[in-house]
Design brief:
The longest helix has 17 residues. The chain is of the alpha/beta class. A hairpin with a 2-residue loop joins strand 8 and strand 9. The protein is 36% helix and 20% strand. The strands form four sheets. Strands 6-3-10-1-2-7 form a six-stranded antiparallel sheet, with helices on one face.
């Protein structure tokens, strides 16, 4: 829906996402990096969407066209067949190619899908394989098998199942939007939203896999051409309302995104509190995201400390939690004087390791028992002085 002078301005939301234009797509990593991290700028003019520092942007992705075409070929279809997937509850049928492109998730097959395949296959070898995977004592084997495959793999490995286009799309779930921490401040960029996107690529089951949304934003969306459907997802995460409070920010990799926004916002609002950033990645020469900006803040006195941990630059790997421990006495002094502590990034390992380091620092430098340290950290959370945006 496009605003016109004759009708009311639409309200953009999850149900009616805003078609943003891609203004900038810049590679942040240097030559030779093992990573591909992109600085994405989206034009939000006309959306009337408001966001605050700490919020996320939800992006509706488009599936890789090569994978869509592979599925159509394996189904023996043309792509023009009209279908109405169960998961979508469409008002009217749409073409197979259309729903596979941007409406349905092509990854994450489940046990239920394998059970459906087992009921359909006619080849004995295929039935034997599925039966072995679906036995009660094969849970780990099944999990490993599914974890290595998308729907395109199953169509190729079990061709005798013979799905019609409608039967196939009924097995798929809705394609959901992906959330990215916003890396800009509305005070500084009122008509734009910036994102810091790690482009995901890996191999499983001898097939190249692509992060659906990261490769859409990073590699397939065309500048000023491809509409990027978005809406704002509001968060509990954000800098202190009291600008005099100090901020300690731990954001390795793309976890640095909201803290770029924090710094922009605190400078624009005239916040007087000190700022301390812990950043980590693989190599300083190729993976120091936004290095020039941080250096500018250091030189301008707006960033009091910048502690970095580049894990591949020495024999023994060093991470942000190691840098925290090395500066434990000063970190404790900042906390004792009222600083807020923020963490953004990987929930599975980094955030847990940072939390453990925080507890150790509070215990050691605060002279507390483990129980007292845990209670202190719990108090930080209760007072919203310890906030996490992890995924």
């Amino acid at each position: 829906m496009t605003p016109t002078s004759e009708g009311p301005t639409p309200t953009f939301s999850k149900e009616n996402p805003f078609p943003a234009r891609l203004l900038e797509n810049r590679l942040l990593n240097g030559p030779g990096s093992a990573k591909e991290t992109r600085h994405i700028v989206l034009d939000m003019r006309g959306s009337k969407l408001s966001y605050e520092v700490g919020d996320s942007l939800a992006v509706f992705p488009i599936n890789p066209p090569e994978e869509v075409e592979d599925i159509i070929r394996l189904l023996g279809a043309s792509g023009d067949e009209m279908v109405s997937p169960t998961a979508l509850k469409l008002a009217a049928p749409e073409s197979l190619r259309s729903v596979l492109s941007d409406r349905l998730a092509l990854g994450g097959p489940t046990r239920k899908v394998l059970e459906e395949l087992a009921a359909r296959v006619t080849a004995e070898a295929e039935r034997t394989m599925l039966t072995s995977l679906l036995t009660p004592d094969a849970k780990e084997l099944l999990a490993g098998f599914l974890g290595q495959r998308a729907f395109v793999d199953l169509l190729g490995e079990f061709p005798s199942a013979n799905f019609t286009p409608q039967e196939f799309v009924d097995q798929l779930r809705r394609l959901v939007p992906r959330l990215y921490s916003i890396s800009s401040s509305p005070r500084v960029h009122p008509d734009e939203i910036h994102l810091t996107v790690a482009v995901v690529r890996y191999v499983s089951n001898a097939r190249q896999r692509l992060g659906v949304c990261s490769t859409f934003l990073g590699n397939r969306a065309e500048l000023s051409v491809t509409p990027v459907l978005v809406f704002v997802s509001h968060s509990h995460f954000g800098p202190p309302e009291d600008g005099s409070r100090d901020c300690i920010m731990v954001g390795p990799g793309t976890g640095i995104a909201p803290f770029r926004a924090f710094m922009q916002d605190r400078l624009a609002s005239g916040a007087k509190g000190r700022n301390w950033i812990f950043f980590g990645d693989q190599k300083q020469d190729t993976d120091f995201l936004y290095a020039e900006e941080w250096q500018g803040y250091i030189e301008g006195g707006q960033l009091s400390r910048l502690d970095t941990a580049f894990s591949r630059d020495q024999t023994g790997k060093i991470y942000v939690q190691d840098r925290m421990r090395q500066s434990g006495a000063e970190l404790w002094a900042w906390l004792r004087s009222g600083a807020n502590f923020y963490v953004c990034g990987d929930a599975k390992r980094m955030a847990k390791d940072v939390d453990a380091a925080l507890h150790e620092i509070v215990r050691e430098h605060g002279g507390l028992t483990p129980e007292q340290a845990a209670e202190y950290v719990k108090g930080l959370k209760k007072d919203k002085r310890y906030q996490r945006d992890v995924y």
